[in-house]
Design brief:
Chain lengths: ~240, ~240, ~240
Amino acid sequence: MKSEKSTIETSQIGQNVLIAEYCVIRANVKIGTNVIIHPNVIINEYVEIGDNVEIFPGVLIGKEPKGPDILSRAINFEKRVKIGDSCSVGPNSIIYYDVEIGNNCLIGDAVAIRENCKVGARCILGRQVSLNYNVVIGDGSVIMTKSHITGNTKIGNNVFISVCVSMANDNNFGSLGYDEKLIQGPVIGDYAKIGVGAIILPNIRIGDNALVAAGAVVTRDVEKNSEVMGIPARHIRYLPPVGRK
Amino acid sequence: MKSEKSTIETSQIGQNVLIAEYCVIRANVKIGTNVIIHPNVIINEYVEIGDNVEIFPGVLIGKEPKGPDILSRAINFEKRVKIGDSCSVGPNSIIYYDVEIGNNCLIGDAVAIRENCKVGARCILGRQVSLNYNVVIGDGSVIMTKSHITGNTKIGNNVFISVCVSMANDNNFGSLGYDEKLIQGPVIGDYAKIGVGAIILPNIRIGDNALVAAGAVVTRDVEKNSEVMGIPARHIRYLPPVGRK
Amino acid sequence: MKSEKSTIETSQIGQNVLIAEYCVIRANVKIGTNVIIHPNVIINEYVEIGDNVEIFPGVLIGKEPKGPDILSRAINFEKRVKIGDSCSVGPNSIIYYDVEIGNNCLIGDAVAIRENCKVGARCILGRQVSLNYNVVIGDGSVIMTKSHITGNTKIGNNVFISVCVSMANDNNFGSLGYDEKLIQGPVIGDYAKIGVGAIILPNIRIGDNALVAAGAVVTRDVEKNSEVMGIPARHIRYLPPVGRK
């Protein structure tokens, strides 16, 4: 059922798709089967939506990143988005171009995902989470409400990032412009756990199964299986490797 | 005045109600008298709006929580929402099902309220505040911009929570699944005050009229009338009981 | 090209303006030349948009601040907004009345700007940034994702505020009501840099070219050219004045 009150320019729509009122679906969009699109959703050109996806009201998929006139970073993009099967995209979420979301992901309310991000399968991005540009997330990882993932960050599989975690990628506070060798976010290993309100500085390596305590400020690399705590974060103890608990 | 450009399926609308353009009001919605509904608002089935309420653009009221397929927590809900008299609901706010908001509340911009929350009368929820599931807030409490209230939290009357406060409810980082005995947010007493950027760990009791200083990380219970500070938060002094200042 | 599916009440629209579907442009709005307005945008009365502006979906410009019935602060406003030339306003951003944005600003996704704010030219306000009431920002300043600028704050020229920075303006947690002599946010000098997750307390002066390290809690004034760190923030070293590096 497609509402006559919506603007639907594409014809590549699968069986059993509901498009509610006041949506705009531009040309060259592909929508799978059994998809529900709530009111006020905007899907721009060259977006591909898998089967069994639900898109809640006010979502925007396919935003062009703004040009470099007042940004120091030049932005190139191919103008494509792929949302995997059985995903849910929460109300008012904003997904830029050149984003790929794996199958069975839950994208919460008012999430914002910048260009050139890749999210694996079975991930949860909580409410108001922001992924900046060039973020790669493995399978089965969880990022809780209001956490911010900085640009050029790599997050492994089965990582758990609690609420209100923040990160930076530039020790020069923007003063040297954008040089991808200098502007690097954290690299976070598989099964790592980051506590509520922790702060991770640029270019930090956090090993597999490491644990960063709530409120820690991580200024140096964290070994695998290490629990760190405090400001600056210091090693407290080793955790049993995953699978041996 | 009801715009012909909106979709209005319900008939239970009081006197002197304005519904602007591109709204969707589903069936079985009850709207009181003297209500203003701005454009692009979506109100789903079984929502009840009191008298003298103003709902700003882009608001969604009545969102079904997503099922448990990739969440560890099973979600039951009755599919009802009640917004009290003389409330204001800010632009782009998202209110799930099984939420009750008391009279005379100010819900700010882009607030997100999950299922099964109960907010008392005369509360203020600031911009981008998030309430997770099963949060209970008393009367006259204020939660300022960008603070996050974790699931299963109890907040008393006349509590003041400053901006960017965060909380957690699970010391196991999701690794043991959802067990409501283990997953418990803070319990915050009447007249307590929580400073900017404070972090409160799971299952903490904060006594009546206690004060948590800015940036503190609260790892242990806080006595009533106690002011705590630092990381971890420690007792500094006792405050005069409320009413004796 | 103006979509027939939008509601356009004003006639003061320049050449080469695109207004997409399901927009509401009220009377007495002025729109310059070469402006792009994406779907679902709402522009209320007495808003003025410059030339070469792009406004992304779901934006609301011109929100009346709510009255003082449950707020302690009386709100006066003139009901005007001015967005300068060549600005971009990101999806779902909310701009209240009595706001002035200079030329060439980039307003990110889901930014919220309260009444009586003035932003200079060539500023960047990152995603989910919130400016409370009466904030003044100079030219060329950058406020990154999720930072919150409290009411009655002054930010100079070429300031860099990293992600997730928070501030307060009331040492009395609202308990004494609103008195503008008591309710004062920080004053931040030109070229100052504030690190990720820093917290700045009410009425703090941060000097020109000062640097606040990540995670610091600033409880006392910071001298110009001083780098401060820790909780509470302490002076670490002097930085070379701007222009001498």
